[in-house]
Amino acid sequence: MDFSWFKVGPEFLQPLLLTLKVAGLATAAATVIGVAMAYVLTRWRFALRDFVDAVCTLPLVMPPTVLGYYLLVIIGRRGFLGKWLQEVFGITLMFTWQGAVIAATVVAFPLVFKSARAALEGVGKQYEDAARTLGLGEAAVFLRVSLPLAFRGVVAGTMLAFARALGEFGATLMVAGNLPGRTQTLSLAVYSAVQAGDDALANSLVLIISCVCVFILVTTSRLLQPKF
């Protein structure tokens, strides 16, 4: 069988390993922040609740390049946070893999947030009230009652966030650039391979991304199916 259309080498493995690292860290950060924000918005009532919900959902509908521009304004060398980090700690996030993690986190965050919020809203208040009557504090109620009951929805959102981070392109290109061996993730490598006319490498990268995404979508669909 002819496998000339498939290419494996350093130009394949480097973006693959970097993508797994970036997507894994971005998913972890998005999960922690997304679940915390979902819990706050489902259990607390305050004046700007709908506005905060809209801001948390915004990356889901906004073009990635616009998100990348916002990140440039915030963490760029002339941005208020980026300038402060560079002057105080000597840290530069632009054109680094850490910058790619931040970009992927922002893009993946709403997927965890919306799934976790829907799952937490489905948790019966009577279970949490019963736990409080037994003397559990709010943190214990969340960790021992709310989160376990919402676990399937949270995991589904986390998997979708990982798939989104895996294929992130626009915001990452704006913040981290496309530097082979440093910030070039799988989606950026596909872009470079197509630009260079390297069809075998592009086919290999696209095949890997497609297989992982299909696996995640099938698993997520099963997780979201009712138990009974």
UniProtKB/TrEMBL annotation:
The keyword Signal does not apply. Part of the binding-protein-dependent transport system for molybdenum; probably responsible for the translocation of the substrate across the membrane. Belongs to the binding-protein-dependent transport system permease family. CysTW subfamily. GO terms for cellular component: plasma membrane. InterPro entries: MetI-like (IPR000515), MetI-like_sf (IPR035906), ModB_ABC (IPR011867). The keyword Transmembrane applies. One of its GO terms (molecular function) is molybdate ion transmembrane transporter activity. Its main location: membrane. This is Molybdenum transport system permease. The chain crosses the membrane at residues 20-42, 54-76, 88-113, 200-224. It comes from Oceanidesulfovibrio marinus. Keywords: Cell membrane, Membrane, Molybdenum, Transmembrane, Transmembrane helix, Transport. It is a multi-pass membrane protein. Residues 16-218 form the ABC transmembrane type-1 domain. Coiled coil: none annotated. The gene is modB. It is found in: Cell membrane.
